[in-house]
Amino acid sequence: MYTRRNYLSAWQRYIELNPVWAGMVTDPAGYPWSSHRAHALERHVKMWCPHDECLALGTSKPTRAKAYQALFTSELDQELISGIRRAVNVGLALGNDKFKEEVERLTGQRERRLK
Hints:
- By secondary structure, the protein is mainly alpha-helical.
- It has 2 domains: 1-75, no CATH class; 77-115, no CATH class.
- The chain is 55% helix and 0% strand.
- The protein has 6 helices and no strands.
- It has helices spanning 4-21, 36-41, 52-55, 61-71, 78-90, 97-107.
- The longest helix is centred in the N-terminal third of the chain and has 18 residues, at 4-21.
């Protein structure tokens, strides 16, 4: 089962690996619009600030960067990738029913497919 942290980590990896999968770059840090350089290489990027999940990876920038790099050493689960793509294509939230109910409550928009 995926937790909030798992989903956020997977989404981040999915987003940053898309230019690699598309053949635009060979490494996520090579894509100019990626935050990968800031997360993994500690590069200063004006339009970026770390979110709480990245800050939770360690108590210092070098520790967080090393932990972030480690996220990219394993393959993303193919079922999760398929779920992310389905959610993006139909414009619905990705998560368990409890999460979707909360999103619906907060936004007033349906987040589950009709039968």
